[in-house]
Specification:
Elements (H helix, E strand, L loop, with lengths): L14 E4 L9 H14 L5 E4 L16 H15 L3 E5 L9 H7 L2 E3 L3 E5 L2 E6 L9 H10 L2 H8 L3 H19 L11 H11 L3 E4 L6 E7 L2 E7 L8 E6 L2 E6 L1
Parallel strand pairs: 1-2, 2-3, 3-4, 6-7, 7-9
Antiparallel strand pairs: 1-10, 5-6, 8-9, 10-11
Helix pairs in contact: 1-2
Bound molecules: ligand LP5 and manganese (II) ion.
Length: about 250
């Protein structure tokens, strides 16, 4: 049986990576699991990277007064105040998280992609949606909503009106996904190769596709690991890395 992360006593020299939690008020069990994870597990680690889609969706930093959001903000703030370094990268659900949220929680926003030094190895971090280039409808949508001018106009509308639009897009996205094949919604191997050639990492870590796995890619005569993180729909999932390597673990 695979060992769970909560039973791992020594995490002091580890770096943790999670993504795709999709936290929302209607999923209290996974919310409680995340809060317990911050308090009991991540707090023992060297650093925590959240690689996007922490929330089911984020309609703007003016939504911080929401009781559910307050619960998550308080837990993140407590963890960062206790000394845990928390880094956050935007996902396709929460790319509107901005400075206000970061200041309240003490987390550091990082770009997609970002290169880090991981125990002497160059690790390239990404949410992963950018690599799904076969999903043309999604990429067009992405280009539109990642445009700063579009975002400014969107954010100028009242919060409730924005939430209504997000719900409509969610419904459309869920409907359209039923028509898309698993291949279309996976990363495109040429896009992955291009990213690896550009950044020359030793390993790539990303989420979004919800298909946790370690892929080995040969590029220019060497092997690069592509680690895919798991989602938190059924249970929490975390990539634990130390000087000896990485391991995908359930909570
Ligand atoms: O998230 P997931 O894994 O379920 O699906 C994604 C892609 N879908 C999305 C949409 C999000 O789920 C919901 C939106 C989040 C809101 C963020 C807030 C700010 C934006 C506000 C917008 C009003 O990302 C899905 C991919 C899938 O990953 C796999 O990669 O397939 O993509 C889609 O389904 C997108 C559709 O194919 C195209 C939707 C076109 C919508 C066009 C309307 C544009 C006008 C918007 C202005 C109101
Ligand atoms: Mn995603």
């Amino acid at each position: 049986m695979q060992k769970s992360l909560s039973s791992n006593p020594n995490l002091s020299n580890t770096t943790l990576f999670i993504s795709d939690l999709h936290l929302c008020a209607s999923r209290p069990v996974i919310t409680a699991a995340f809060i317990a994870f911050l308090q009991d597990t991540a707090s023992k680690a060297h650093a925590l990277y959240i690689l996007g889609d922490l929330f089911e969706y984020w309609a703007g930093d003016d939504d911080i007064d929401d009781a559910f959001h307050q619960q998550i903000i308080t837990a993140l703030k407590k963890a960062s105040d206790s000394g845990l370094k928390i880094f956050f990268m935007h996902g396709n659900r929460d790319f509107l998280i901005a400075d206000g949220f970061c200041q309240l929680t003490g987390i550091t926003l990082i770009d997609d992609p970002t290169l880090i030094d991981l125990y002497g190895n160059k690790a390239l971090l990404s949410h992963g949606d950018d690599l799904c280039t076969d999903d043309v409808a999604y990429q067009q949508f992405r280009t539109q909503v990642r445009d700063k001018k579009w975002q400014a106009e969107f954010l100028s509308q009242p919060l409730q009106a924005r939430k209504k639009q997000v719900e409509a897009i969610r419904a459309r996205s869920m409907q359209e996904k039923t028509q898309k094949s698993l291949e279309i919604m996976d990363v495109n191997t040429d896009a992955v190769d291009a990213m690896l050639r550009k950044y020359q990492p030793d390993l790539l870590i990303h989420g979004h596709t919800h298909r946790p796995h370690r892929h080995s890619i040969e590029l220019g005569g060497r092997f690069i690991s592509r680690w895919v993180l798991g989602d938190w729909y059924e249970q929490g999932s975390c990539l634990v890395c130390d000087e000896f390597g990485c391991k995908n673990m359930p909570l």
